[in-house]
What we know:
The complex is a heterodimer of chains A (213) and B (462).
Chain A lengths: L1 E12 L2 E12 L1 E6 L6 H8 L7 E6 L2 E2 L4 H6 L1 E4 L11 H11 L4 H14 L15 H13 L5 E5 L7 H15 L3 E5 L4 H6 E8 L2 E4 L1
Parallel strand pairs in A: 3-8, 3-9, 6-7, 7-8
Antiparallel strand pairs in A: 1-2, 1-4, 4-5, 9-10
Helix pairs in contact in A: 3-4
Chain B lengths: L2 H17 L2 H14 L12 E4 L3 E2 L3 H13 L3 H10 L7 H4 L6 H34 L6 H27 L2 H4 L1 H20 L7 H5 L6 H5 L9 E4 L7 E2 L3 H5 L4 H21 L11 H10 L20 H13 L3 H13 L9 H20 L2 H7 L6 H27 L3 H24 L3 H16 L1
Parallel strand pairs in B: 2-4
Antiparallel strand pairs in B: 1-3
Helix pairs in contact in B: 1-6, 2-6, 3-6, 3-7, 4-7, 4-21, 6-7, 6-13, 7-13, 9-21, 15-19, 16-17, 16-19, 17-19, 17-20, 17-21, 19-20, 20-21
Amino acid sequence: MSNLHLDAVGKTYGRKTIFDxxxxxVPIGLTLLTGPSGAGKSTLLRILATAERPSHGKLSWKGAxxxxxxxxxRRALGYAPxxxxxxDDLTAREFAMHMAALKGLDLAAADAQFGAITNAINxxxxxxxxxxxxxxxxxxxxxxxxxxxxxxxxxxxxxPTAELDSHTASLLExxxxxxxxxxxxVMTTHAxxxxxxxxxxxWRVEGGQVVPT
Amino acid sequence: xxxxxxxxxxxSVSLRRYSRSWGLWLxxxxxxxxxxxxxxxxxxxxxxxxxxxxxxxxxxxxxxxxLGIVVSTLLLPVAFLYxxxxxxxxxxxxxxxxxxxxxxxxMLGRFAADAVVLLASLTALTAAGWLLGWQIVTGPFQPGWxxxxxxxxAAPALIGLAALRQLLDSRPLGRxxxxxxxxxxxxxxxxxxxxxxxxxxxxxxxxxxDYTGFVRPLVAGSPGGDTDFSIGGGEIKPGRVPLDAERGxxxxxxxxxxxxxxxxxxxxxxLASLVYAQHSAPRRSRLAGLASRLLANGPPPxxxxxxxxxxxxxxxxxxxxxxxxxxxxxxxxFLYLAIAAALLALLPDFRHLGSPAGLxxxxxxxxxxxxxxxxxxxxxxxxTTATPPPVRRAALVFAGTAWAILLSLPAALATWSIDPIxxxxxxxxxxxLIAGLLAMISGSGFAARMVLLILWYVYLST
Lengths: 213, 462
């Protein structure tokens, strides 16, 4: 079963083709995206997250083509890009509530859920601190936590465990595996035994192609 | 590595970044196009430089003086805004603060790049002035006498601005919104103080007080040393008066003071490197420690480890509005200042006391929130949420208006009148709209804060 389909999707920047004619679907469960640096993994994730449009081809969400169905997809999306310009003058909790409001979630419930998520990834004690005091790893976990707010059916994660020590990375991976039981999770990551064993699909981006492995 | 090499590298990197931004080309384009509007027509339209209520006879030198005065007074905030919001607002301080390169060399290099860019726009304006002068001047068309007064008046002010930018960037407070407030105060001071001393005889010392350089060319050049002059707008009487701009800029000590201001600017940018504070190592004074305790956010809320997934809000627009309202008023400092503004609103003359106080607070909080929401690196995340960006921006305007109404409520209750609420809604709504629009265009809160501070001053002083 799948909600998100890609039909001959390609991306070019000027004359450079990043990838070409990708036709596939995103299954429920965990999809791992691998490939060398600069192969286009993040570009593909941005397209799946509607942050960028494909140069050609089309995406469809629950059978309806984008951009017509973009609003429905966004209501079901949790997205953690690799680099986010986090507002340093806010606390993590204030930022999370900002994102919850933009996602159209109930704020009181989102606040409680944010507490639970951050507790699971060892961030809870710092959520009332300003983001300016956060380390790179804490910022990464905050971006991850906001992506899980609500109950997104499609979760796109770009290198969520980069900059994290192995213990903290495994905490995130546990949450990812839990969510993948009922949602489509697409993520880029380095080799992880825990994730690989739970993956429903493995895609490799290389040489302008996205191939299942 | 020699200091000269470092300074040259810092300058060339900054110039390369400037040259690749559309903002520079816009600035160079706007200067010549705007030149026509910097000179008043007989009907009073355009930016006026008037003596005794009369426009001056537009000789070549007078044209140069008028263009220079408009740049060094009215357009200085635009130039500051450009410097603070352009591509070089971000520098890789994480690496250059720990490099072995001389801080003074880096800052002088960046100062030189800023000065070059501002002077490039002055060059474009000079060319426009020649074209304009060819068409409109009374008497002989003398390109040199257009360029000389223009550069003498405006160039030191612009070079000083480039130095001020370095000085503000060197201290933690100056890097933030407080930097715009400092500039605003300095700018107002630079406009007002020279007028106070305009009746004193011309000398180097007196002219040094006139950073923007507008007093002497007008006073010493006007018939009988008239000190009744105006810049900007106002009622214009028919007929033009002669202005001997050549005599004005040749007044005792004027040229020396303008050159001295260039030297002061270079010294200021060197000083900036001496007082430079690293980004990552703030020094905490005892007072700062007390302030941080007062402003601390407290511990996290009680944990519900098994909290279920948050459901969709039944009223998403109201939820968004509430979230924007909270984020505009984020932090305890805002709360304390809002209470102070609300108390001021209880005093008489709400229009000139409570309303400007509340509005000033909102200028800072609205631009902070609009700036953070529109940061390009965050927008690519927020744009993928269920809330389209226009709806988010509309929510900012409504939430800002709601804050303004709340701050004017005490005045309404004290006077038992709806007028304060109407005034608060109008000014707060307009401020929120401008903050949202300018932040959307520029991707930060700098431009919005600067423009709103100027409008706030106009509101306060009328």
